[in-house]
Design a protein that fits this description.
The complex is a heterodimer of chains A (about 375) and B (about 350). With about 375 residues, chain A is an alpha/beta fold. Chain A has 14 helices and five strands. Chain A has a four-stranded mixed beta sheet with strand order 2-1-3-4, with helices on both faces. In chain A, strand 1, helix 3 and strand 2 form a beta-alpha-beta unit. Chain A starts with a helix and ends in a 6-residue tail after the last helix.
Amino acid sequence: MRLSVIRAYFKKEIKELYRENLLWYLYGIPFLFIILFGYGIRMEVVDSRTLIIDYDQSKSSYELISKFEHSKYYDVDVATIPTKEGLDKIKRNEKDLMIIIDSNLQENLLKGQKVHIGVFSDGAFPLRAKTLEGYATGTIYDFFLSKMGSSTQLNKLIMINNRNLFNQGMRDEEMIIPGLIAFILLVVPAMMATFLIVREKENGTIFNFYASPITKSEFLISKLLPVLLLQTVNIFVLWFIAIYMFDLPFRGSFVLYVATSFIYLIISSSIGLLASVVTSSQIVAIIFVAIATVIPGFLYSGMIMPISSMSGEAYVIAHLYPVMYLTHLMYDVFLVGDGFNGNQNISYFFILILYSIILFILSYITLGKKLK
Amino acid sequence: MRIFITVLKKELLVFMRMPALVFLVLYVFTIEIYIAGAGISLEARNITVGVVDYSSRVNSSKILNHLQEPNFKTPIYYTSQEKLYEDIKNKKIMIGIVFESDFDQKTYKNIGAKLNLLLDSTASAQAFLAQLYLQNILLEFQNAYELSPIVIDNHKLFSPNAKFTYFMSITELLAIITLITVLLSASVFVNEKENETWNLMLLMPVDPKIIILAKIFSQLIIITIGTMIAIGLIIFGIFDAPFNGSFLMFILLTFLYSFTSAGIGLFVAAVSSTIMEVAQLSILIMLPLIFLSGAWTPVYAMHPILEYLSYLSPLKYYIEGSQSLFFRGTDIIDLWKYFAGVIVLGGFIFWSGMKKMGKLF
């Protein structure tokens, strides 16, 4: 390992990055991503387009409707149209939820008979359908409980006293942003690193490497270093945006945040390097990296779906991809705040280090120093 | 026409001569979609439950018996709240239930017993659903539905058991169609630039429009075959998804939409001179397009500015149209807005891509 060689290569890489206008990509894309997805991804269902068909038109039904109108979850439209027309509206994707109040609501309530209320939701979006059903059921029960007063037996039921840990307000930002940072730190450096070697291959400048006395490890390190150093800025920029633009709490250890993010940069850059070493053409390398990073980054990170509830192969794959470990640590530093006190955090931290070493060695082994 | 076919054949041959690329395209159209459909589910399934029970375990175990597959995993007992909290923190447990020591007495006396619930709300969507499930279980346990004056008839339309598999696999397919079309159609041109065969192409006594169209068409053939494999083998074959609309309409919509993506590809190819730039630009364009198309989050729930922007995404119309066809079974006449959206936006994108590309000839 000769430092002077690395330094020379390093200079060359930085100059190339600059001359090829790659810097805007390096810094622009993470910024764009966090803004777009931070504001764009909403798991919470609000303002769902609701149609209430009121055949009863009584005092009780008006009260029930106003209960719906005052909730942020629904964007209510009241109409007295045949059920079929309402169903057609859902079919045309104009409404998400339809509630049908039968004409005997008030009458049956007074007589103490059962009242039927129909709730129809658009099952094309399964998560939304289930959530909306839950909301509507809750709203309707709530209404009748409050209407019947404290005299009935219903008020003596077992109630749930729930505490939302880590994300008290159930805010979507707090749920999405830490995972999003992990995602960005996976995709951007990987893409960046892919470009570096494949480009040399396609331009033929890789022969410089084949012919010169530079060793494989020197070559890999000098390819990795510039990307790593330039990307480090992003770690801080992303943190700043998360805290000041999205108002995230930061309960954990900043050292852990920076350290894991940095190790992660090594991992994702190595994935990119590996992809570019094993493939021969740029387009293949790029699709390869896209498959290896974008989709697992979203799906297997535990960001939108908890790992513990995955089944079968997805559970195994999630544990094989390094992204899950980083996402866990990101949630810890932002929301949980256990830092180095948690055993799980420490083991995940070392798993990440292990990954970075394995990936680097893999790209070292697969990199050939002669023309195939 | 002869020239058109010759160029078409040549591009298909070039594609076939890159086995790694053929393999990757096959992979994304089959295994990738299968994994996403089979494994990923946004709903709350297999919720892990941890229990600390200080009560005499009469009523609590009855309640816990109601926590059943597939929504819940078998509850795990903990001796203390600290240990439970620790495992929630380590994401081994998603919801924790704590029964106080006077839980049974209060239940018998009907004086408002309380069940303490600890939710890991770093996954708020699932945490919320888990809470809803539990609420329902409690109400059922106490025969509340019989006591209450109302009966709520829930209907999930179109997909009664709300299977996530269908939704995920189809969304994944649409995203992959977009991604692969843009990348392939852009690289067809940029490859020539990089390999310096571009000038050769310019010297050919052929109308540039024919070359462009033939090149695009060759990639669309590849995409169409991939889509067919994905739908036939994975979505209908393995997942047995429902299809409530007109299949012909879906094919037509896909065909029109792939022109849109190809248009983006043309545009990208025109402004970039290396594959690297193609990749950067595609990422820059594609990811917002995919994630803001309403595939994951309904458009009206987004930030207002993004909501307006999403109307410019042709993918939005394609996804909504496809969902309507697969699940909702929308009448053909009511599909006009999706077709209009794809045709107008796609037409514009393809036209400007063609124009931009044509200038290079």
